[in-house]
Amino acid sequence: MFAYIVRRTIFSIVVLFFSSIVIFGLVALGPDPLTELKLNPRVTQADIERISATYGLDQPLPVQYGIWIRDIVLHGDFGTSFKQNASVNSIIVLRIWPTVLLMGTSLIVTVLIAIPFGIYSAIKKYSALDNAGTFLSFVGYSMPTFWLGLILQLVLGVYLTSWAGYRIFYISGMTSANGGGIVDLLQHLALPVITLSVISVAEFSRFQRSSMLDVLASDYLRTARAKGLSQRVVYLKHALRNALLPTVTLVALSIGLIFGGAVVTETVFAWPGLGFLLFDSLNKGDFNVARALLLIGAALVVFCNLLADIAYSLVDPRVRFD
Question: Which terminus of the chain is less hemmed in, N or C, by CB atoms within 10 Å?
């Protein structure tokens, strides 16, 4: 196991290195971060040159990349925001909690609903509930995130408020202007979580059902039944642990995407998280912020893939890494 972890760690570092090159180059293809200044008649050419030198924009791209990656590796410094004139680290720190709250809550809701439903659908294959779940899963998975978010805003945020006479769900932001505590937070959190969970439950439950069906048809489960074990023991002790492997991968990848944020959902609901920050940074040409967010997201995906592989051996004792 130790040798496997070392090999995977080295491989992950290589992957991140090449990912950083791709991220740096692609973001550099975006709009010039100094466009607004160059169009401002009150800003002289000397000012432009001074600002370019301050941010290192007067250097060739390979030199800019070298400075950027050196500061990250040696000091954990992602640079300075072009638009906010503040440390990228400090900007990102303020947005971490909203995204963790949104994505974490959505992931918990998804797992609590999708895994039991996927297991039940496999055990009660082709039942009325299984057929209904299959239909709803295809509908949920095929719905665009932005469309579902807008529909929820309209129906539950506008129409329901008009019908009830008071606001139950908020359609934007994280808190009201005058605060409101935990209840106010839940009212803002509900619609974004529903938007993310509907699509994720559809995906997770289908994977869980398919994996459970494969396991239920295996020889060792027939042997377990022949030995007289109860259905509950057969399903939960022998079948479930093996059927969880694909779901473990999905959960690990979802955790890896937490800090990348749900860009579309956070943008639709103006949720002040990392996804909204990434969208805003790319639009404004705030290169250092966008690069930092993309690199952090890539690092988490790679790291959580490693965790998923290690978790396999815990979920399924037959899996060994020699």
Answer: C
Tally the domains of the chain. Answer: 2
Three-class SS state of 87: strand
99 in the same domain as 70: no
- In the numeric block, which tokens belong to residue 293? 């967010």
Sequence-ordered list of residues with C-beta below 8 angstroms from that of 147, at least 6 positions apart, any chain: none
Q: How far apart are CA 115 and CA 69, in angstroms?
A: 40
Q: What is the pLDDT of residues 118-151, one digit of tens each?
A: 888 888 888 888 888 888 888 888 888 888 889 9
Is residue 208 located within the same domain as residue 242? Answer: yes
CA torsion sign for 241, 245, 247, 252 is positive
- Count other Cβ atoms within 10 Å, centred on residue 191: 24
Query: Which among 31, 90, 22, 77 has a CA at the least distance from the CA of 57?
Result: 31
Does this model's pTM top 0.85?
A: no
- Indicate whether 19 and 100 sit together in one domain: no
- Is residue 85 one of the residues assigned to a domain? no
211/308 same-domain check? yes
